[in-house]
Design brief:
This protein is α+β, with helices and mostly antiparallel strands and 152 residues long. The protein is 32% helix and 39% strand. It is built from four helices and six strands. The protein is globular and about 45 Å long.
Length: 152
């Protein structure tokens, strides 16, 4: 595998995320695996496994955004073999959240795992969350308590 092939899927992913923050999840959906072990841990919480759950999760989250655009992708780690690769990045974007008139700036720490499926790179897993900055133990306890109280 030429390194440029992996670089191309990373670039396609970045372009698809730019569309996602405009409310259009279709370009990202095309990049996702359709295998049962595809998974998504999105920035608004929750865990989705399987193509149906992942697509529903992405569709509902993309609908939150309008007129968004990526400001930057800060690549921290990029690694690939012939059939597997991953990136660890800080994504910064700006978007209008549905129901408001103002733009918000967001930074996410994001890890995306890619694999080859039938000769084509696909997103097999993604996790993105807003915990770019370290949090203190009291904040962590509050989050843990919130999660415990809101188990589904």
């Amino acid at each position: 595998m030429a390194a440029s092939e992996f670089d191309k899927i990373v670039e396609k992913t970045h372009l698809a995320l730019n569309e996602f923050y405009k409310g259009n999840m279709e370009p990202y959906k095309i990049l996702c695996s359709s295998k049962q072990d595809v998974s998504l841990l999105g920035a608004f919480g929750g865990i989705s496994v399987g193509p149906k759950d992942v697509i529903e999760h992405m569709t509902s989250r993309a609908s939150f955004f309008q007129a968004g655009h990526n400001l930057s992708f800060e690549n921290l780690v990029k690694f690939s073999t012939s059939d597997l690769g991953y990136i660890v990045e800080v994504e910064r974007f700006e978007a209008r959240v549905r129901g408001t008139d103002e733009n918000v700036r967001v930074a996410l720490r994001a890890t995306t795992i890619f694999r080859r499926e039938d000769g084509e790179w696909k997103v097999a897993h993604r996790i993105g969350d807003p915990l770019v900055s370290r949090i203190d133990p009291q904040t962590y306890r509050s989050l843990a308590k919130h999660n415990e109280e809101n188990k589904q």
